[in-house]
Amino acid sequence: MRVSRVQAEENRQAVINVSGRLFREHGFDGIGLKDLMKGAGLTQGAFYKQFASKEDLAAQASKRAMESAAQIWAAAIAENPDDPLGTVLRFYLSMGHREERMDGCPVAALGSDAARQSSTVKASFETGIRAYLDTLATMIPAPQGKETKDKAMAILSTMLGALTLSRVVNDPELAQGFLTAAERQIRETVARVNNDGER
């Protein structure tokens, strides 16, 4: 039975969405096309009608996952606009996020995998990372005109490192320790910027 253009596009979007979640769970090389398509309720034969290659799908799924993460940040901030940084830190540096691989931060789940992928896949991550940095920069209370980009980069690096380390260890107490220490360090750094201006 022939699939309509509308249905074909819906199928394509479903594959992108499902693949973003499955790549985060298994890694780019940890799951094949058959299982990716099965996850979307389609056969492997439909893949090449929708995507040029697995790399093409990886780039599109990564872009979608990064956009989804940015929307999660925006929604959380909108719920607590008086403390946007605290809101982001609370959900990002949480044990819940540590356990949530499929819908969690794509950079934390796939960062080391992405570093070994093509420039097209890396570009999807770079765009999302720049969006993270732009959002964080707006949360750093610094005197107007002062450069905040380096501080946003340090904050994001700390967040990602802590989340990654928390996922690597088995001991929940040690995992929580990484998350708590990172949040405390970020808050102290931002408080110093707020009190003293540029460090």
Description:
There is one protein chain. The protein has 199 residues and is mostly helical. The protein has helices at residues 5-26, 33-39, 47-50, 54-79, 84-92, 95-99, 106-114, 119-137, 149-168, 172-196. Helix 1 crosses helix 4 (54-79) and helix 9 (149-168) runs antiparallel to helix 10 (172-196). 73% of the residues lie in helices and 0% in strands. The termini are far apart. The chain contains ten helices and no strands. The mean pLDDT is 91.
Question: Main traits of this protein?
Answer:
mainly alpha; 10 helices
Describe the structure concisely for a colleague.
This protein has 199 residues and is mostly helical. The chain is 73% helix and 0% strand.
Helical proportion, percent range: over 70%
Radius of gyration: 19 Å
Reported for the largest beta sheet, the result is: none
Q: Work out the number of β strands.
A: 0
Structural class: mainly alpha
Mean pLDDT: 91
Unreliable segments of 5+ consecutive residues: none
- The string of secondary-structure elements, in order, is HHHHHHHHHH
Shape: elongated
Topology:
Layout: H1 5-26, H2 33-39, H3 47-50, H4 54-79, H5 84-92, H6 95-99, H7 106-114, H8 119-137, H9 149-168, H10 172-196
